[in-house]
Amino acid sequence: MEDNDNIQDEIMRLFGEAGAENFSINEEQIDIDLQMEYFEFAGNLKETIKIKSSEILKTIPELFLEETSIHDKKKSLVLLATLDNPEAFRAIEKFSANSEGEIKEWSKLALHESRMLLNSSLLGEHQVFISTGLGGKGTNLRYCVVIISRKKSGYTQTQQKVITNEFSIHLNQVNGLMESIEFEEMNATIMCLLPIKVAVRDFFLEILNECNNYGNFIQKDFIVTNVKKLNANEISDFLKKNGKSESKDFFDEENEF
Prior knowledge:
Layout: H1 2-18, E1 23-25, H2 32-48, H3 53-57, H4 60-63, H5 70-80, H6 86-97, H7 101-123, E2 128-130, E3 136-137, E4 140-149, H8 157-173, E5 177-184, E6 187-195, H9 200-212, E7 218-225, H10 232-242, E8 250-252
Parallel strand pairs: 1-2, 7-8
Antiparallel strand pairs: 3-4, 4-6, 4-7, 5-6
Helix pairs in contact: 5-7, 6-7, 8-9
């Protein structure tokens, strides 16, 4: 938990520097490995290449040519995203709307970066960019939560209602939202939106404790991640890898800035 607590501390520090409302959450659900590739590519490019804004804008037509390589399109999108220029933003937006596959996901990241830069310029204030694999909405991040039944037979209908009601009530109380809940064998998988300032681990522990007041039917082991939605095999592998213990919970959170 120490590393994840440090992530929460870092978010709060950035809020203090940039202002409580000056942050931008990437709402798209984009593979975290692709995001890491994008930010590493962009960081290296910005450090090694110095091109005038006018020259970068001249590359826009090449972005829409079929013969332009994927690498050059990625490079063009990253460079356009560095410009405080509406023309650059519109070019990225148009390209993103008409592209497919990996380059489309790449263009979404460039579009969000470009939009944030324009907003920062208009407001005259620095913004923090927060991007996770599951994305978010407004000021909320999206999480996948997995809770495990104490019985191999899984959850009864009554227990399912308790879990659904408690998650809905607690999320509504903090202006969050439960998007979906799936019961499969011993697991309940919840997709939800939670305000970024909420202490994630403590929040979900409180819900589990409330549920267990109705019969202590949920294990203390649980998984929380904002990287991706976990399937049954991934959940099983994760629990085997970490070891099942009723004295700890499993918490996996990655925020990229």
